[in-house]
Amino acid sequence: MKRRDFMKTGAAVAAGTLFSACNDSDRQAIDYSKVKEKKEAKLSSVNINKTKKVTLKLATSWPAHFPIMGTGVEEFVEHVHIASAGSIEIKLYPKNTLIPALAVFDAASSGEIDIFHSGPYYWKGKNSAFALFSGMPFGMTAEEINAWMHYGGGYELWRKLYKKQNLYPFLGGNTNIQMGGWFRKEINSLSDLKGLKMRVPGLGGEVFSTLGVNPILLPAGEIYAALERGVIDATEWVGPALDLKMGFYKVAPYYYSGWHEPGSILELTFNHQSWMKLSSEHKMIIEMASSQMNSKMLYNFQAQNAMTMKKLEALGVGFRSFPDDVIRAAKEGMQEVVTVQSGLNSDFKEVYQSAADFLSASKSYCDVSLKKFLNTR
Ligand code: CA
Questions:
Q1: What is the CA(91)–ligand 1 centre distance, in A?
Q2: What's the Cα-to-Cα distance from 172 to each of 255, 307, 342, rounded to whole Å?
Q3: What's the pLDDT score for residue 26?
Q4: Which pTM value belongs to this model?
Q5: How far is the CA of 199 from the centre of ligand 1 (A)?
Q6: How far apart are the first and last CA of the chain?
Q7: Are the C-beta atoms of residues 90 and 58 closer than 8 Å to each other?
Q8: With CB atoms 3.0 to 4.6 Å apart as the test, which of 168, 225, 297, 345 could cross-link to 72 if both were Cys?
Q9: 273 CA from centroid of ligand 1 (Å)
């Protein structure tokens, strides 16, 4: 059928305007060698095989092959190797094989390693504002954090503060909404939380402490035994998929929905010089591969958590929501924490204000879109 004949058919009527708006000159591919801003990159003349080979050391805070986070980083390393035709070799050191899990920040800052993969709230002792880049209680979802980082000023603030630490960060994954944790006893009111010992880190832990909870930090390998023996009364971890592997349901059957980590980010962070030394082609490969890792880790968490729900239901896990008085008090507690931290640290104040402004705008939109939709489906 000739195009003229095709255009006469009813089915093509709606498409007609699309065709007519798309003439031959529109169909030409964009020649990037003619785009002024792209000239310096000389993309058309790049031969990646001739690019100087670089070797980078990457240490993580996760054990080798750790589900989702560990395997996601391994895939990133492989993709960078392939996309750079072998001209970027990343030597991957899982937790404690070269650098202790929580020493990776300092190791990259000093140049002992080139890159680390971890989570910003682990470094809140260096600067309380870093915890905000991980997300905050009652704050942004993964989608909102990604939007704030890329288009709401988040990345600029994060890179400004990390530059003082000689670091250059990228988003490197997101756990999605974390669950509120496993409790040995049911929480029916705010008074049931008073005096409980709970493993909960970060800003969430500080908010829980305003509710009368004693927040405790424990290494992953010690949490189950502490919960079983009653040394702690509750623990949060991540979400259904990773929590099931920890076996918490056997000793703490009440599983609460969360508000303390609504979208915790993971980071892929470079030593600043190691990043600056890379060629523009290598930088682009890293940017694209890390962006893919950021997306795919979130999708993997969503998929694994969804596929774990039936298993948890079959095990008789009691899904619960915190009572209204707990939520009200936690929101007030969050404001207390923000007021205190903002008074102590101008960086915290600046980052919180930026995130809160973005969240306020996003809430207006979500209230008429996502929230309505989720309530109707
Ligand atoms: Ca957590």
A1: 28
A2: 28, 23, 27
A3: 56
A4: 0.87
A5: 9
A6: 44
A7: yes
A8: 297
A9: 32
Cα 141 to ligand 1 centre (Å): 14
Enumerate domains of the chain plus CATH numbers. Answer: 54-175+264-302 (3.40.190.170)
| Distance between Cα 187 and ligand 1 center (Å) | 19
pLDDT averaged per 10 residues, the chain (length 377): 47 45 58 58 55 94 95 98 97 96 97 97 94 93 98 98 98 97 98 98 95 92 96 97 97 97 97 97 98 98 97 96 98 98 98 98 97 96
What confidence tens digit (pLDDT) does each residue in 227-279 have?
999 999 999 999 999 999 999 999 999 999 999 999 999 999 999 999 999 99
Distance 68 CA to ligand 1 centre (A): 15
Question: CA 226 to CA 220: how far, in whole Å?
Answer: 11
The answer to whether 104 touches 116, Cβ cutoff 8 Å, is yes
CA 365 to ligand 1 centroid distance, Å: 27
Residue 48's nearest CA partner among 80, 78, 75 is: 80
CA 186 – ligand 1 centroid, Å? 20
The neighbour count for residue 185, using CB atoms within 10 Å, is 12
- Give the Cα separation of 109 and 116 in Å (integer): 10
What are the angstrom distances between the C-alpha of 177 and each of 40, 205, 260, 263?
41, 16, 9, 5
**If you search the block for the tokens 């936690």, which residue do you land on?**
330
Give residue 52's pLDDT: 87
- Ligand 1 (single-atom ion) residues, CB below 5 Å: 178
Tokens 């409980």 correspond to 196
Q: Which CA distances in Å does 231 have to 207, 210, 227?
A: 21, 21, 6
Ligand 1 centroid from CA 212, angstroms: 19
Dist. CA 118 → ligand 1 center (Å): 13
CA of 258 to the centre of ligand 1 (A): 10
Distance 178 CA to ligand 1 centre (A): 6
